[in-house]
Specification:
The complex is a heterotetramer of chains A (329), B (349), C (511) and D (329). Chain A is an alpha/beta fold and 329 residues long. Helix content of chain A is 43%, strand content 22%. Chain C folds into 3 domains: 6-242, 3-Layer(aba) Sandwich (Rossmann fold); 260-333 and 418-510, P-loop containing nucleotide triphosphate hydrolases (Rossmann fold, 3-Layer(aba) Sandwich), CATH 3.40.50; 347-416, no CATH class. In chain C, strands 6-7-8-3-9-10 form a 6-stranded mixed β-sheet, with helices on both faces. A 6-stranded mixed β-sheet of chain C has the order 16-19-20-13-21-22, with helices on both faces. A 4-stranded antiparallel β-sheet of chain C has the order 2-1-4-5, covered by helices on one side. The relative contact order of chain C is 0.11. Classes of the chains: A alpha/beta (329), B mainly alpha (349), C alpha/beta (511), D mainly alpha (329). Chains B and C meet through helix 1, helix 2, helix 8, helix 9 and helix 10 of B and helix 2 and helix 4 of C. The structure holds adenosine-5'-triphosphate (2 copies) and magnesium ion (2 copies). The site of one magnesium ion has 4 residues of chain C, from helix 9.
Chain lengths: 329, 349, 511, 329
């Protein structure tokens, strides 16, 4: 309705120049991250399928400051939409508000920005589902009782923190009374630090039965430590990780299974969402519906104060399917 | 201004005048510095051991040594650089680029012999080091600026080389991963490599001409020129060695963690510099010992290992590390002052 | 063995530095087995000439012959290999390295096959060399722990260690007192008798007369001439060096001594000096002399607030003086001209004007900003007053000769309102021309009411200039000599240990 | 001694006037502008250029005192941590109920104190060199920020606080005005006052300066304190631009700032260089980054370009000097 017109009239240049092709931008957290590259690929696929032009950006360091500068550059280029995987949920608010004022449709994907800074968030998976699934997974692996620990990314990582909250909630269920979460350690997504932290967990808690690492670097580092120390079968490992990084450890049985969504799909869905926002098919309100290419129909739902679009349940990788995925992403 | 009595730069005198009763004061200071550091390390270890009994187990000690090996290999090169009054901020990037390229190599040609992979990493590192060496030695760019600039360039090249991808464990042949996990006589290869490097470096800096010239250039560049030392070559050599060691460290890193990323070891240079400084290498040049940097690296290694083990809140870890570095450095300075003063008081006037 | 009677011959040497011709068509011949003095004013190009010979600088033009064969050195090692050794003007040591290493740097003893350094052999050899020089310290001590004089001995040992055919000494006696110089003379003579040829550079005539048989003079980068030492009169030599006559080195002056302005009582600093007491009156020149390392510089720097004293007190203009830093001292009225003008006196990369005004900047500042016109005016008038030779006050200080640099430092002292001037070796490394100008200036200042402390190691200077002389030995004042009893013998007696015949003899006996 | 009359004027040659480093920077800025304008049609739009300055000026405030520090032959690598700490403390106090104005004052005070501590350590422990001292305090200051804020972000500042980094006064960004005022102030301080003259003196020869009655220690402490204060000013602007703060903001700023100062022709080895050079360098790097961002050059290419620019900028004068001396021979 109204919103749609306002958007169009505020960005006439966007539709006018560059051979009439609208520009859709995506900003990932940092460059050189295969997960992010895949997400950007998916976004690009969607945008190009629709006949628009895609701009892929990522700063060299995963900082909010660098992302703010990129948002400014995109405002100057008068893009039609910005999809952003945020390095900080709040720190981009002023910049993104400025973008929205300039008529640019803003959505977040992967890691959300706060509700005021976006029209809609494309959520790869329900945090609650992830948190609960991971606990259920590790409890199954350790046979229902014993000590477990979490090896996370940085202590500030919002995604991870949300998942950890849900894990703790799940553990409150009386059926887990024999399962004890002994520690949440932070490897800062650095290889060396994650390895030290994993080693420290094993030494400080000799009876540790399972580790949940909801981050790629963390789970791979833990996999490596368990492999080197020959703890296969003694300490179980699960979490979220890239299939390519984890193939080795899933095939060897160090990590019986783990979860992840398909980052290409996250990007692809975001691309369609962005286009739907720009074309006025949706405004980001709860109940809006649109068709996201090969992913089929999607609906905007409530997410705290804001709204979101859910990709679906995370995918389970285990020895039976890892071989076909390890070369994909 | 009165000249401070400086600590003797090298080892030479130390073993030779055994049997002579008169030991120079400076030698004692040198000893004291290392003893003090050692004492601090022991105290820290005992403290940690009381909190967590699994600290002083054979396994944990071996883990600390393994995790410190790469740091201390780099510290050897950094010490040489600092002795010549320089600094190298690019080592993290050099490490990343050589690690990445050798990882790409083994992933494309899995049949390659691990030693060849190591050689390729060292080769890349050497080239990176040579470029910096040229800039510092012959274009006369300040080391901090030259290495800051090249740090960006090498880091950018790492991303370019990998096309934004990582090289993961399953893409690496077992032989390659075994470089870092393999053992000889029950000791991890990394530790053995580090020890071998210490021994070679010790011999190099105290028993060869080129080694002593590094000290000469750092101690007084002007007289070095006049003594016929080609300072340019020495500087170039030092940065090239640093590059080669970073390259080696790159391969070891990738092999140890079984993953090569674009942002491998970013910021690692600060840890290496901290290890050197803790080990008594003077930024003013001309002073530094292998034993010192080994202890410095070990102290950092212990901190990295112990803080998680005694359940220090992750939010306190950074503060504690910084404070320990500052206190160690300040105490070092104060003790040295005290000894100088004592020495003066003993002079009869 | 020689194809020529000359061990070394240089023809038409020209060396150009950016903006300066340091050597202009210079000739030099050194006979085998002679000691040849090389003299000239500051900046005449002597040190540059030496560096050309030793391959540190490559000349733009000219030829060099060694034993009649033409050679060209591109690098110091070439000269070393050809048997040329040099003791450079400024001590060129490695403070962090041991004495042994300092001696052998560049030509270490190594085992042929393994190229491993033979430390034992080197330490032994170093010990032997130092023993010959009468130095009593362990070759394993780091160079930085030695005093300046001891470092100079190491430099000499370094030159001896290469067994050179040609030895060049660039102002080796500048940091030595007469006794130590005497030791050096003996060594030089012994080397000559063993067949070495020596080039000896010095500003001291006594060195030349005592040692050399020939003297060559440079002036303004040019070759002036070569004479036999016993054939040329002192005054002619000065004319050759300066280009004009200098009538009187120490101008006669009538002292105009006023009230006491500074009194030092029992001053002491652990490890450096103790029980130093003296008083100074307006218009008086108080000499402070002694052997190197006697602690004179320390006493002066303590009074100036560079260092702290831990015993005694200083009474200045009737009140006890407390200074924490040089700024305090200057505010109260004490000025200090340091021993090392390049490191402590001047900002070499700056122009003359800025150097002069540095210590009195507040005077030209209104509301924080510097009044550049006023600054220029003051700088110019002071520079003219002390007679700096330059085009304008915008010339860089680094482009000036040593003597002119020293005049700039004097001009700097005149910007502040001072009562006491402490001059630490004001004529060290300054040529005869500038020397007499400086003496005149000192007298002038004393006449105008300053109290002056003159630290000097040169006996004639002390005797010629001072009203009273305090002699220091090992951190204590051993004698206070009035002008009437001021003789070389009295000073020597007071500056040396009564129990031993001489400091250096004492050392030798021990070694 | 014949009395001499010295000339009154400095010799002026056009050659030496135009051979100054600052002209090269001006030429480079023009070249970069021409390049940017030809690559992207958006570059020369007034609004874009104006907003671009807002993007890179925050850290430029630290460049000003860093010029003093580097001139004196020292270095301060703790500035970025000071930015973080004062931002975090400001936010923390605000969250504890202190009015925003007072919280800002407290933030500035904290920065100043941190700088003062650096300065005191540097002058009291001369044997340590400023690299080491500030390396240690760098870790400590950021460490304190982590202790204070833990994994929280802190925000919800009053609206007016956002004006600092985002608002315009008479069409000119407030941050640009503030920077201009500070730049003029620091330029005046360095080039016109006794204080500045003494800084140069210390940079050229600290010992001689001390013997000339310059209170070297006092000036050094003051300069480090100024650096702390200006880091806190940067903290205000950065926090305003991000709308919130975290203990990991501003990471890597120290190296960027040092690079700008060096590019500005400030040399440690002789106390040479002028404020205008550093200011030009700020704009050169700023416009270069922005321009390349407009054409969406990848982050890694940007890294390589900036690295090479830094190297070239120091290499050119060195090589020029070498060729000049060769030609004269
Ligand atoms: N490396 C250099 N670069 C530029 N100019 C130089 C250099 N070395 C010496 N000069 C200049 O060359 C001239 C000759 O200097 P030199 O040191 O040879 O004089 P000198 O006769 O030894 O003087 P002194 O008696 O003071 O030792 C001086 O004007 C000096 O400033
Ligand atoms: N490099 C040095 N390191 C340590 N102590 C030194 C050094 N040089 C001199 N000293 C000591 O400092 C004290 C005073 O030296 P100082 O230089 O003040 O003497 P001086 O009489 O002024 O000699 P000079 O003739 O060199 O000016 C002496 O006891 C000396 O041994
Ligand atoms: Mg000379
Ligand atoms: Mg003295």
């Amino acid at each position: 309705g109204n919103n749609n017109n306002a958007g169009d009239s505020a960005s006439p240049a966007a539709s006018g120049d560059a051979g009439g092709k609208k520009k859709f931008a995506i900003i990932f957290k940092n460059t050189g991250n295969p997960y992010g590259e895949k997400q950007m690929d998916g976004y690009k696929n969607a945008i190009e399928e629709l006949g628009y032009e895609a701009i892929l950006k990522a700063p060299d360091q995963p900082t909010a400051e660098a992302q703010i500068a990129m948002i400014e550059e995109l405002i100057s280029q008068k893009v039609a939409a910005i999809g952003i995987a945020a390095n900080d949920p709040d720190a981009l608010q002023p910049a993104l508000e400025k973008a929205m004022k300039a008529g640019i449709k803003v959505l977040s994907l992967d890691s959300a920005v706060n509700a005021k800074s976006r029209l809609v968030h494309v959520n790869q998976a329900d945090p609650e589902l992830i948190g609960r699934t991971l606990i259920q997974g590790v409890v199954e692996m350790i046979g229902g009782s014993g000590e477990i620990a979490i090896l996370s990314a940085t202590s500030q990582a919002t995604n991870q923190n949300a998942w950890i909250e849900w894990m703790k909630k799940e553990l409150e269920d009386p059926k887990y009374k024999d399962v004890k979460l002994v520690k949440v350690a932070y490897g800062d997504d650095l290889r060396d630090k994650s390895v030290s932290e994993a080693e420290a967990l094993l030494k400080s808690y000799p009876d540790l039965k399972g580790i949940i690492a909801p981050t790629t670097v963390g789970i791979a580092a833990a996999g490596k430590v368990l492999t080197d120390k020959g703890l296969k079968g003694k300490v179980q490992l699960t979490g979220l990780g890239l299939p390519s990084e984890m193939a080795e450890y899933i095939e060897s049985g160090i990590c019986p299974w783990m979860y992840l969504w398909n980052p290409i799909d996250v990007g692809y869905l975001s691309g369609y969402t962005a286009a739907a926002l720009v074309d006025g098919k949706i405004t980001g309100k709860v109940g809006d519906k649109f068709t996201a290419g090969t992913l089929g129909d999607k609906e905007v739902i409530q997410d705290g104060e804001g709204t979101q679009i859910m990709l679906g349940a995370p995918f389970k990788f285990d020895a039976s399917n890892i071989a076909e995925w390890k070369t994909v992403y | 201004m009165k000249r401070q009595i400086t600590e003797s730069a090298g080892v030479p005198g130390a073993q030779i005048n055994i049997g002579k009763p008169a030991r120079s004061v400076s030698e004692m200071i040198g000893k004291f510095r290392e003893l003090g550091l050692l004492g601090f390390i022991l105290l820290l270890s005992v403290g940690v051991q009381l909190r967590n009994p699994s600290f002083l187990t054979w396994e944990n000690i071996s883990d600390i040594a393994t995790n410190t090996a790469i740091l201390s290999i780099l510290a050897v090169g950094m010490m040489l650089v600092i002795i010549t009054r320089g600094i190298d901020l690019s080592i993290g990037a050099t490490l990343a680029v050589s690690g990445m390229i050798s990882a790409l190599l083994v992933s494309h040609y899995p049949g390659i012999h691990p030693l060849l992979a190591i050689a390729s990493g060292i080769g890349i590192g050497l080239i990176c080091g040579m470029v910096i060496g040229c800039l510092v030695a012959w274009v006369n760019i300040l080391p901090i600026i030259a290495t800051l600039g090249m740090m960006n360039v090498y880091r950018g090249l790492t991303f370019e080389a990998s096309g934004g991808k990582w090289v993961s464990a399953h893409q690496m042949p077992t032989g390659f991963k075994a470089i870092a996990t393999g053992t000889l006589f029950g000791v991890n290869n990394l530790i053995l490599i580090a020890v071998a490097i210490y021994i070679v470096a010790y011999y190099f800096i105290s028993h060869t001409r080129s080694g002593r010239r590094i000290y000469a250039v750092g101690s007084n560049p002007d007289s070095a020129t006049i003594s016929g030392i080609r300072s340019g070559r020495v500087l170039w050599l030092v940065y090239t060695i640093m590059g080669g060691l970073s390259g080696l460290a790159g391969v070891l890193w990738v092999s140890k963690f079984a993953s090569a990323q674009g942002d491998t070891a970013s910021g690692y240079e600060l840890s290496v510099i901290a290890a050197c400084v803790l080990g008594g290498v003077s930024i003013a040049g001309g002073v530094g010992k292998i034993s010192g940097i080994v202890l410095g690296s070990v102290l950092l290694g212990i901190l990295n290992n112990a803080l998680p083990m005694i359940d220090v809140s992750p939010f306190w870890q950074m503060f504690i590390q910084g404070t320990i570095i500052l206190i160690a450095v300040l105490i070092n300075a104060l003790v040295k002052r005290g000894i100088d003063r004592n020495h003066l008081m003993r002079r009869k006037i | 063995m020689a194809d020529s009677e000359y061990a070394l011959e240089l023809k038409g040497i020209t060396k150009i530095f950016p903006g300066i011709k340091a050597l202009d068509d210079v000739y030099f011949k050194l006979k085998t087995g002679e000691i040849h003095a090389l003299m000239g004013e500051n900046g005449a190009g002597k040190s540059t000439f030496i560096k050309v010979i030793t391959g540190v600088h490559a000349p733009e033009e000219g030829e060099m012959y060694l034993n009649g064969r033409q050679v060209a050195f591109n690098h110091p090692t070439d000269a070393q290999k050809a048997g040329i050794a040099a003791i450079y003007q400024h001590v060129t040591c490695y403070p962090d390295l041991s004495v042994t290493e300092n001696i052998f740097m560049g030509h270490e003893k190594i085992r042929r096959r393994t190229r491993c350094i033979l430390w034992d052999d080197m330490h032994k050899e170093a010990e032997r060399l130092l023993g010959e020089l009468g130095a009593g310290f362990d070759p394993r001590t780091p160079m930085g722990a030695l005093s300046v004089a001891e470092q100079q001995l190491v430099e000499i040992a370094k030159a001896l260690s290469v067994d050179a055919k040609i030895i060049i000494m660039d102002e080796p006696t500048a940091a030595l007192t007469s006794n130590e110089s005497e030791e050096l003379y003996r060594i030089a003579e012994r080397l000559r008798d063993n067949g070495a040829s020596i080039i000896f550079i010095s500003h001291r005539f006594e060195d030349m007369y005592r040692l050399a048989s020939k003297v060559t003079v440079f002036r303004d980068s040019k070759y002036i001439g070569t004479w036999n030492v016993d054939e040329i009169a002192n005054s002619d030599l000065i004319v050759a060096m300066v280009g004009r006559e200098i009538s009187q080195l120490f101008p006669k002056k009538e002292a105009n001594i006023g009230e006491e302005i500074l009194r030092v009582e029992g001053l002491g600093k652990a490890g450096y000096f103790a029980d130093v007491s003296f008083s100074l009156r307006r218009g008086e020149i108080l000499g402070l002399t002694g052997l190197v390392g006697a602690g004179r510089t320390e006493v002066c720097q303590t009074l100036f607030g560079v260092e702290r004293y831990d015993k005694g007190k200083v009474i200045f203009k009737g009140k006890e003086l407390k200074v924490r830093n040089p700024r305090d001292a200057m505010r109260q009225g004490i000025g200090y001209l340091s021993e090392d003008r390049q490191k402590q006196g001047l900002v070499l990369q700056w122009d003359i004007g800025r150097n002069i005004t540095l210590s009195a900047l507040e005077k030209f500042s209104g509301g924080g900003a510097i009044d550049k016109r006023k600054e220029l005016e003051v700088a110019k008038s002071l520079a003219e007053k002390v007679g700096v030779k330059a085009k304008s006050v915008f010339d860089l200080v680094s482009s000036l000769s040593g003597g002119n640099q020293q005049k700039v430092v004097f001009a700097k002292l005149l910007t502040a309102e001072l009562d006491v001037l402490i001059l630490d070796e004001p004529t060290k490394g300054v040529d005869v021309g500038a020397k007499s100008a400086i003496y005149e200036m000192i007298n002038e200042l004393a006449r105008s009411g300053y109290g002056i402390v003159l630290v000097s190691s040169e006996m004639p200077e002390v005797i010629g200039m001072c009203d009273r002389v305090a002699v220091m030995r090992e951190g204590r004042i051993t004698a206070m000599l009035d002008r009437e009893v001021l003789t070389q013998e009295a000073i020597l007696k007071a500056s040396m240990d009564d129990t031993a015949p001489g400091a250096l003899e004492g050392r030798r006996a021990e070694a | 001694m014949e009395p001499r009359v010295l000339a009154n004027k400095k010799e002026f040659t056009f050659k030496s006037f135009f051979l100054q480093w600052e002209w090269l920077l001006v030429v480079l800025i023009l070249a970069v502008s021409v390049m940017n304008a030809s690559l992207s049609e958006y570059f020369l739009e007034y609004d874009n250029l104006r907003d671009a300055t807002m993007g890179f000026l925050d850290k430029a405030f630290i460049v000003l005192p860093m010029v003093f520090i580097i001139l004196m032959g020292d270095i301060d690598i703790s500035v970025a941590s000071i930015v973080t700490l004062s931002s975090v403390i400001m936010a923390d106090l605000f969250n504890h109920g202190l009015p925003m104005g007072w919280a800002m004052v407290a933030g500035l005070a904290v920065g100043t104190i941190c700088g003062w501590i650096n300065g005191m350590l540097v002058v009291r422990f001369k044997e340590l060199s400023s690299v080491i001292v500030t390396l240690a305090t760098m870790i400590i200051y950021r460490g304190i920020a982590y202790i204070l804020l833990k994994d929280q972000a802190s925000g919800k500042f009053p609206d007016w606080f956002q004006y600092l980094g985002w608002e315009y006064i008479g069409g000119i960004p407030f941050i640009l005005i503030a920077f201009a005022v500070c730049a003029i102030g620091f330029g005046w301080l360095l080039h016109k006052t006794v204080f500045g003259r003494r800084v140069y003196a210390i940079g050229n020869n600290a010992t001689a300066s001390r013997y000339s009655g310059v209170q070297v220690d006092k000036i050094k402490v003051l300069v480090f304190t100024l650096a702390g204060l200006m880091s806190a000013v940067t903290a205000m602007f950065l926090t305003s631009r991000m709308g919130s703060t975290r203990p990991n903001i501003a990471s890597g700023y120290e190296l960027e700032v040092i690079a700008m100062v060096v590019l500005g022709g400030i040399s440690t080895a002789g106390g040479k260089g002028r404020m205008i050079g550093a200011i030009l360098a700020v704009f050169l790097i700023g416009f270069l980054r922005y321009g390349l961002g407009l054409v969406n050059v990848s982050a890694q290419m940007l890294l390589i370009i900036l690295g090479l620019l830094l190297i070239l900028s120091v290499a050119i004068p060195q090589l020029k000097q070498r060729f000049a001396s060769m030609r004269r021979i």
